[in-house]
Amino acid sequence: MNKTDNIFPSKENIPETFKLTDTIMQSEYLINGEIRNWKGDFQEVYSPIFVEDNGKYNNYIGSYPLMGKEEAMKALDAAAEAYNHGKAEWPSMTVEKRIACVKKFVVLMKEQRELVVKLLMWEIGKSLKDSEKEFDRTVDYINDTIEALKNLDRESSRFTISQGIIAQIRRAPLGVVLCMGPFNYPLNETFTTLIPALIMGNTVIFKPPKLGVLLHYPLLKAFKEAFPKGVVNTVYGHGENILGPLMESGKINVLAFIGTSRVADILKKQHPKPHRLKCILGLDAKNPGIVMYDADIDETVRECITGALSFNGQRCTALKIIFVDEKIAASFVEKLSIAVEKLKIGMPWDSEVNITPLPESNKTQYLTELINDAIKFGAKVVNPSGGIVNKSCFSPAILYNVNSEMRVYREEQFGPIIPIVSYKDISEPLDYIINSNYGQQSSIFGKDADQIANLLDTMVNQVCRVNINSQCQRGPDNFPFTGRKDSAEGTLSISDALKVFSIRTLVAAKESEINKDIIRQIIKEDKSNFLSTDFIL
Fold this sequence. Notes:
By secondary structure, the chain is α/β, with parallel strands linked by helices.
């Protein structure tokens, strides 16, 4: 019997708290402030959790609308009208009033916590602990974004006088934003672009990721009630039917997308006015870890397991390949194998579960292909249960003696495989980083300050975050999150996101008496929402 045997539950063995009592047949979508009912075709939704019922396994949990060009253009028209070249209610609204709308949304969002958390587990196989963390972290992110905007607006509430010119410099919105997040953090990472885009005065067309669609359904009413009509619009369906027409219209001002560089390139090329399109992109990564000869092996193993296998390795910030000094490689791999074999494989609601089912329907097959390819070129699966498959479950595999001939050396596996490369000279992992198409993050494990310093000075010009004796990660959310090369475009963090979804704009006048009088009158009588000295408390 192996670790993945008998892990899927029977209908009777699912705790009542976590059962989906009914399939979720979503027919509703939000356009122009109206929750409308879809009458066309639907996409069936299957969970990575297979439930045994009378000897058969079922994983069907619901459906959502398969919309097309007509509905996409209606959403675009609504968003464009709600922006109206910056003249409409939302973009011209005071910052304080926009903040009030976002606060209302948070209150309504929190009412749906239990259902959203449950759907995170059932749709993408995320553990209960991580699902709760994703929801709560998203709420914290929204609240922190509000505070960051208050600070930004306070700094902008004063006037500058330079070389005889009076000016007030503030940030203005960019227009209509097409917002799409990833399936691995379908709530949190989607909202790290959607919320700052909204709060800065842009209007949004929001398409949920291919997996993790239904969990946004409980929030439709919150969007409707919190924001003016047309400010938030939702579309569902196949990307080629929806996204192509939206981009080809030339009316999308900002593309906020977290996914693959291949899809991002297609979307960007479809826009007829590329210089008018601003892109905020979080893309592929192949983050390496470098384990030096003097690393604390036990601590490094702990960090590498967390870094490589948190949420089954389905994170862009995961450690995707580990280079280990040959002097300690055997010892490191042995301890890593022992630790990986202790990981608990099970259902998202199981206590202390580490590895859960994978949501992508073809993922276990792809991962198996990577392993077979690596074995063909001389690698070995060193942990006993590595690579064992049961339906959507894949037991984590450690591949040792990985080399450049193997696909897993180059490809982002986005799953529970840990490729290990033994190196003789530190130049080998450095060359890998330099020649890589990706440049998000890296990790260094060791104690030699001189060697770490030398590595840092090269790596900071190749990746955007170097972690010392710790895994790669996104947080804290006030740190910049971006990448070089094919890994990102634009910088996200709480404060950076506010800036990337807006542009510095100023009102300026010569320092004459008539101009001073005009400015005083506008301010004193609150004639302008932009030209103002109001201070948000």
